[in-house]
Automatic annotation (TrEMBL):
Keywords: DNA-binding, Transcription, Transcription regulation. SMART domains: HTH_GNTR (SM00345). This is Transcriptional regulator. The gene is yvoA_1. SUPFAM superfamilies: Winged helix' DNA-binding domain (SSF46785). GO terms for biological process: negative regulation of DNA-templated transcription. The keyword Transferase does not apply. GO terms for molecular function: DNA binding; DNA-binding transcription factor activity. Residues 8-76 form the HTH gntR-type domain. It comes from Salmonella enterica I.
Length: 103
């Protein structure tokens, strides 16, 4: 049986579209998402619906929110194998990061 778009809540459709943009690379690590008002205009919906889809993406770890600044794509995580004795700076370089602090 084919599911029609009306059966799926709108916030899940918006979440899927934003998730696809992040995973395709259209939105890169650290990029700022459009404001909630801009997303309302893009998807022609209410802020409550946008906030629900953003909250779903935040709970899945794809985006994070900074108070009064907006929503951002979560940076890639540093993967550490606890069974190996590796220098932290070397580990950062191997994974494409830098050991400089972020302020």
């Amino acid at each position: 049986m084919k599911s029609i778009p009306g059966d799926i809540p709108q916030y899940l459709l918006i979440k899927a579209q934003l998730q696809a943009r992040i995973q395709s690379g259209a939105l890169k690590s650290g990029d700022k998402l459009p404001s909630e008002r801009e997303l309302c205009a893009i998807f022609n919906t209410t802020r409550i619906t946008i906030r629900e889809s953003l909250a779903q993406l935040e709970s899945s770890g794809l985006i994070w929110r900074a108070d009064r600044r907006g929503w951002f794509v979560t940076p890639e995580r540093l993967w550490l194998d606890p069974t190996q004795n590796t220098n932290f700076h070397k580990l950062c370089r191997e994974q494409g990061g830098s050991q400089k602090p972020r302020y």
